[in-house]
Amino acid sequence: AGLEKYIDKKGAKYAYYVGCTASYRQINIAIATCRIFEKLGIDFTLVGDEVCCGSPFFRIGSVTTAKDLMKKNLEIFKDFDMVFFSCAGCYRTFFVDYPKWIEEDELPFKTKHAFEMLSELIVKEKIKFKPNKELKGKVVTYHDPCHTGRHFGLDMEQRMIEKSKNLMIDMRKVKKQIEEWYDKPRIILRKLEEDVGTKFVEMYRIKMDSMCCGAGGGVRAGYPDFSLRTSSLRCDEANAINADILTTECPFCWRNLSDANKLYNHELQVLGILEMISEYDLLEVLEEPTHEDIVAIIGRAI
């Protein structure tokens, strides 16, 4: 897939954890992420010894296997300053699950989804997007993945409650942080609207109330017909707002939405946000991110 040059680069401070889905099925997501990192001037590497994050095993209760995989990944990535992700499920596993099973208070490295990096660079005015005649005027919407959506939102709420010294915690602060988290991919989509000429329109169910794509929790594997019909209902919501492009930032959501789109003739274009930016060559770098930009954690409970 042309990613060989990124594998086990010596001296890299940052790693990109690809995950099983983007490694073997949705390779397009991994390619797009690597190209964007390269264009940003980020000195990153893919790790040849990467193993499964353990998410499927945590979900079915096979904790021993999940913990074995966790220990291997913690050892493999321990010397990196930052580990990036493009898979919502893998990111959720590292960020939410791993800390519950390790003796230390926190992971030995920082974590960040690729869309966080782009969102933060937009806010800092270090990147913008190029106009594109093919995309101008197209209606774009966004599907919130469960793993980086509700799962993150509930975990952030729990972390803030645990750290609070006051039982009467101001839930407005909790809701504000969750809202800031959900806004990250939307910052990118609004910037695309401003620079490229697309039109960003939300679906009816979003953020903490977002509809599942139907793929997770073993549903796609165990009940494929039900899974795809569920995904088709989500595509119906995109059709209801006359969307041309349905975006998401989860390879598993991408797969299920794409399959349902074709099976039920929804006539949508299903793309990852980073995939769209890469495929249409939209990224324009005004200033390369510094080490501080890369390792900063903004708008998320650490």
TrEMBL record:
Signal peptide: none annotated. InterPro entries: Cys_rich_dom, HdrB/HdrD_reductase. Keywords: Oxidoreductase. The keyword Oxidoreductase applies. Residues 14-94, 185-257 form the Cysteine-rich domain. The keyword Oxidoreductase applies. GO terms for molecular function: oxidoreductase activity. It holds the Pfam family CCG. This is Cysteine-rich domain-containing protein.
